[in-house]
Amino acid sequence: MKTWKVILLTIGLLVPCGVLAAYTGVNLYIQLIVGTSVWAGLDSAQVQLRRYQSGISYGPVVLGILCSMFWVVAFPWYLYMRHKILTGKARLRPEFEPWDMASGQMSPKGLVQPWQGRKL
């Protein structure tokens, strides 16, 4: 999702809760924040958010707490990263990138450094 779509979705979730609270007195903000934060935490484990380079790459529990505390920023950011992961545009962290054994630069023990006497 593009950034503006994520922002519109977030506003689209907030506005009906505000209208409902204004007309009926039923406040659904807490349920909205808790529900979406729990969903983001559970879903982040499925899409393996921790493996990707982002400022919001945390485990499910930490992400759920982060979303519940800073929902207006963290939830849209999570949706944006989730879309990048599902479309294949997100970059993996270096420790999760696959080895390129054909290049001759990597060995099972790590980077080949001939000046230090390391060999394949």
Describe this structure in words.
By secondary structure, this protein is mostly helical. It contains 4 helices and 2 strands. A two-stranded antiparallel ribbon has the order 1-2. β1 and β2 (110-111) form a beta hairpin. It is elongated, with a radius of gyration of 21 Å. It starts with a helix and ends in a 9-residue tail after the last strand. 16% of the residues are buried.
Largest sheet: 2 strands, antiparallel
The helical percent reads 55-70%
State the strand order across the main sheet: 1-2
- Number of helical regions: 4
> Which runs of at least 5 residues are low in confidence (pLDDT < 50)?
none
Q: Structural class of the helix and strand makeup?
A: mainly alpha
Give the termini distance in whole angstroms.
44 Å
Portion in strands: under 5%
Mean pLDDT: 86
Name the overall outline: elongated
Spatial extent as radius of gyration = 21 Å
Give me the strand/helix succession: HHHHEE
* Number of DSSP-assigned strands: 2
